[in-house]
Design goal:
- The chain has 208 residues and is mostly loops.
- 10% of the residues lie in helices and 9% in strands.
- The protein contains two helices and six strands; from the N terminus they run ββαββαββ.
- The strands form three sheets. Strands 1-2 form a two-stranded antiparallel sheet. It has a two-stranded antiparallel sheet with strand order 3-4. Strands 5-6 form a two-stranded antiparallel sheet.
- It is flat, with a radius of gyration of 22 Å.
- The two termini are 21 Å apart.
Amino acid sequence: MESFFRTEGYFDDFNYGELTSTNQQNLVNTRRSGTILKDGKYVYQLMMIPTDGFLMDNKPLPPNVEMALSFARQEALFSTIKIKDENPDIEGVFELKDCFAKVEYVSSKDLRDHISNRNTITYKYDDLTTKIRSIPQHDRRVRLENLVGGNTPLYLFAGITKTPLLLGSNSSETISFLQNNVKTFDILLNGKSCHGYPMVNIEFFYPI
């Protein structure tokens, strides 16, 4: 997927639901090029490069320890779009086959000494919270109070999308965070605008 990062967050150039029918077909043909066609079905090979290590830390993995990887996966409605109406709906999650992890072998004298002395490797974990708020229709000014309480998070990602997409859709991308006619957007911390905000006179089509 050819994607890039915008100043205010992730944006995929190929938002399928927003393309013309011709561009949609061109995108399908591009994605299918080089794939394997078996029993009338296309077989895709996917490579996932995690932004963090397996233990959510950049420290080395513990030596001589067998690790099992598991993924909390969404149903196919959240990751696929039906190309033709006559295509059957996909129930449940996609079946993944021939999965393996490829890691880099790292060693140094300091690391070997650290482990040989039975010193521990401590990993730091992050907490992630997802909150959904409804925005009233036809209101020109919307204010959402107390989005996050307690400790100030290191990162905050906010997006505006249509409510039905949160339940999964086979016709539109569920992470279609578009501009949605928003003209001004502000995030306040302790009553003051965060760095880079407020965004005013928004004219671009990219997601907020």
